């Protein structure tokens, strides 16, 4: 398989969520999905960018993601609610390495109205299916802040294995050092994980 496919972002569509490459034209929807006030602060609490306050802020966030894609550092998807067509959030592939068939999934946020609705589960199922079944990935990883218990729980519910902590791994937006919790899933894990996620979504 050509390594170029690892750097492509095909549209991925499920029953609840559709993923397509993040673009500047999505800025108004990005801002609306982020929400306002306490809701926006909660959504973006562990993200490096703060919650956008204006369309210009949203465009700046998207531009940063597009620059990262140009540098092959991050490949960002916009997430859309299939039922309404509304922009719902983002998720990305990163640390893409076709030579050893590995990649990460992260930089994920969903507007609060889509929490606990199945949208995140289906989004990850779509991304994992593309990674393992289309690209032939051997390993997928996730990284999250040691204090972000909600994210850790969500990753664990997908069926990923907690591998350990990476001390002083990144710097938070407040300048403090972040200890990162690393999770992984391998192609050996994938068949059982895929069936369980499909069953979970079918059960609602």
Secondary structure layout plus pairing:
Blueprint: E1 12-13, E2 17-21, H1 27-34, H2 37-43, H3 55-70, E3 74-81, E4 87-97, E5 102-110, H4 119-134, E6 139-145, H5 149-158, E7 161-171, E8 177-186, H6 190-203
Parallel strand pairs: 5-6
Antiparallel strand pairs: 1-2, 2-3, 3-4, 4-5, 6-8, 7-8
Helix pairs in contact: 1-3, 4-6
Sum up the structure in keywords.
single chain; 204 residues; alpha+beta; Aminopeptidase; eight-stranded mixed sheet; 6 helices; 8 strands
Written account of the structure:
With 204 residues, the protein is of the alpha+beta class. 35% of the residues lie in helices and 31% in strands. The protein has a single domain, classed as Gcn5-related N-acetyltransferase (GNAT) (Aminopeptidase). It has helices spanning 27-34, 37-43, 55-70, 119-134, 149-158, 190-203; strands at 12-13, 17-21, 74-81, 87-97, 102-110, 139-145, 161-171, 177-186. The protein has an eight-stranded mixed β-sheet, with helices on both faces. A hairpin with a 3-residue loop joins β1 and β2 (17-21). α1 crosses α3 (55-70) and α4 (119-134) packs antiparallel against α6 (190-203). The termini are far apart.
